[in-house]
Amino acid sequence: MTTLRKTTYLLLAILAIFVLPWVGASIQYQDQFPPDFFAYPMLSSPQQEAFSWPIFLLFAGLSVAVIVLYLFPRLFGFRAVPQPDYRPAKRVGFPLWFWLGLVSWGGVAVLLWTKATGPAWLLHWSDMPLFWGFALMIDGWVYVRQEGRSLISRVPQEVIGIGVSSVMGWMLFEYLNFFVEDNWFYPKGDIIDREEFLLYAAVISSGLLPLAFEWYSLFKSIPALRERFSLGPKIVLPEWLKTTALWLSVVLLVLAGLFPAQLFFTLWLTPAILLATVLDKIGVWTPLRPIGQGNWTPALLIALSYLIEGFFIEGQNYFSATHGPNREILYTMAPAYWQYNLPYVNAYHLFEMPLIGYSGYLPFGVYCWLWWIAFATLQGIPSRFFQEAPFQPHKPEPA
């Protein structure tokens, strides 16, 4: 397939993610959107559907099945993999950027969690040092475990590239959030003006996708995880089923705009499904392809990356504010402090996130890798993540 055709199909897929929810919502509102429909940041969320035990239990059952898969993979047909007795050939100390990340992340976290009132400019932009500082810390940990090898030490330019791609990769979800009636919102977003908040959101989002790849690199450095899922069932989807998945994601993108409460969860699924199927059809490697050989490691570990990171992000968000008896915010200096208002499952919170909501981090982790592959393919950027192991010599995709 020619480069032009690959580029065209990828651009059409990304355009579909932007346009199709708008089409559905336009039909629902008969082209008369509410005045504040696209207001950003969203300072509140409209009343959502009431809690539903059947829907909660359905999602809870699926979440438990995933947990069992990670803990007991042999129940799902995975074979045991002998664990090598790994001992590092040499010991290396933590690199400079680990300590810079620790100071950056730790210093701002202390200011937020102690409810400091200044410096205001730093607290208003706190997510930037928090996200990137944490990424530097994880990379430094990988550096120690991998005997001096990490993403920053080997391919710093790729980390920067992933950060650049992360801006649009996350702001796409901020846009999609409009069409599911603001599942998350920023109740203190008005402590800075809207123009600054938009710039703030774009800049700080550069740190979100790199965190996924840093966690994945850390998981790959742990012998017990590195091969745990490499001998699983071999699943190769027929082309007709891939095409069905492609068109189903297209339909769901439209329907999410028409039925935002009933299909809110598809927000986290359809971008990944659409990108995965299009990338596969144009012959570009994705972390889902090794499943055909029984190797589930890339898919399961990148999914796990944001489930773990999600816990840390939600925790640092929650402790940056003072709360009242009904979970209301009494004080925070973080304009991007977020809360959730999910239909049907908005109960049993862990920090601000409803417990069931954490399951959405799993497909988001896969999306992070797919988005970077799509971005790098469009830009013609050679990437270590066009393969499972980022520290193997790069092998360019065949033309």
TrEMBL record:
<feature type="transmembrane region" description="Helical">
    <location>
        <begin position="159"/>
        <end position="178"/>
    </location>
</feature>
<feature type="transmembrane region" description="Helical">
    <location>
        <begin position="50"/>
        <end position="72"/>
    </location>
</feature>
<keyword id="KW-0472">Membrane</keyword>
<keyword id="KW-1133">Transmembrane helix</keyword>
<feature type="transmembrane region" description="Helical">
    <location>
        <begin position="198"/>
        <end position="219"/>
    </location>
</feature>
<feature type="transmembrane region" description="Helical">
    <location>
        <begin position="358"/>
        <end position="378"/>
    </location>
</feature>
<protein>
    <submittedName>
        <fullName>Small-conductance mechanosensitive channel</fullName>
    </submittedName>
</protein>
<feature type="transmembrane region" description="Helical">
    <location>
        <begin position="240"/>
        <end position="259"/>
    </location>
</feature>
<feature type="transmembrane region" description="Helical">
    <location>
        <begin position="92"/>
        <end position="114"/>
    </location>
</feature>
<keyword id="KW-0812">Transmembrane</keyword>
